[in-house]
Automatic annotation (TrEMBL):
InterPro entries: AtsK-like (IPR051323), TauD-like_sf (IPR042098), TauD/TfdA-like (IPR003819). Residues 87-356 form the TauD/TfdA-like domain. Residues 1-26, 250-272 are annotated as: Disordered. Pfam families: TauD. It comes from Eremomyces bilateralis CBS 781.70. Belongs to the TfdA dioxygenase family. Coiled coil: none annotated. Residues 251-265 have a biased composition (Basic and acidic residues). This is Alpha-ketoglutarate-dependent taurine dioxygenase.
Amino acid sequence: MATVTSTQTQHLPISVKANSQSMEEKPKVRRAIDEEGDTVAASHPHYLPVWDHGEKYAPLQPFEHIERGKGADPSFKDLLTEGSKLQHLTPTTGSEVTGVQLSKLSDAGKDQLALLVAQRKVVAFRNQDFENLPIQEALDFGGYFGRRHIHPTTGSPEGYPELHIVHRNGNVSEFDSFRGNRNSSVGWHSDVSNEKQPPGTTFLYALDVPEVGGDTGFVNQVEAYNRLSPLLKERLHGLKAIHSGLQQAESSKKRDGIVRREPVASEHPIVRTHPATGEKALFVNEGFTKSIVGFKNEESEMLLKFLYDHIGRGIDYQARVRWAPGTVVIWDNRVTSHSVIVDWTTGERRHLARITPQAEAPFETPYIPE
Ligand SMILES: [Fe+2]
């Protein structure tokens, strides 16, 4: 196991590696590199995931989050420097930036990055050098924005548990089984919203991506909140929902996958306020939100179904980001949901790496009558 040195990291590895001499008791380790078959070689094989059944982490402890976007200069002068170009994908949601090298940003530029992403919800930066940096350098960059999360059920490159790897190697049967029982691949979610302090400014960078397809869809949950009637907004304020990681852990176990940290459930406000922008967002997602505290089952199901339908159908407050080599997509996980779009059938590999800084415990501010 890697020695993790960042001060932003407080994960405590628990050593459960079998110290028995017996080979049979050694925890199973599965490596994606061993399952490549006749696929086209990965361009970044050192980023392929390893699932180590012996790798365990203690429960996450509370930490004080420093919100980098708060108080950042809204002129973005240290971020959008001369020669850079910012283009909006839609009026409310999503932007693309060219002419900026993220890894070279000053701290002021990084603070402005957090603010820009909070305002635009998702920003794609093109032609970045992240994929070619030593992995630890990319992790250090992400660690500026919050404590780096270790995902409880995914594999990581050996020695870098804080990297969450998104990977389909193009194996057709894997795609068939993914799509086998569903009409659409769309599954809106906010990453690990079940944690007490879910992620904020979140980074995903391309390693291998299909030439066409495999986009990521984002929905702006501030705008989803804004579209509601004043009466419904007022009713939602003060409500809390339970977000649980149990199902994710169970489904990993069913597939003989790993559970590196025991899943937790958290109660979060249904309307949360962003600490940098002050905007209010709907904070529910189909991936993790299970029920509304204090409501009876049918009431909770009905209201959550309405909210999920509202979020899912709002193409007028969604953006779709197209991947390309060298692209780093950054979203604010507090005010968005996202979904992969599994629509390519070419057998091309889709391999991305995520750095997931955790943020504050969600909080709400009072309803303001309109
Ligand atoms: Fe995700």
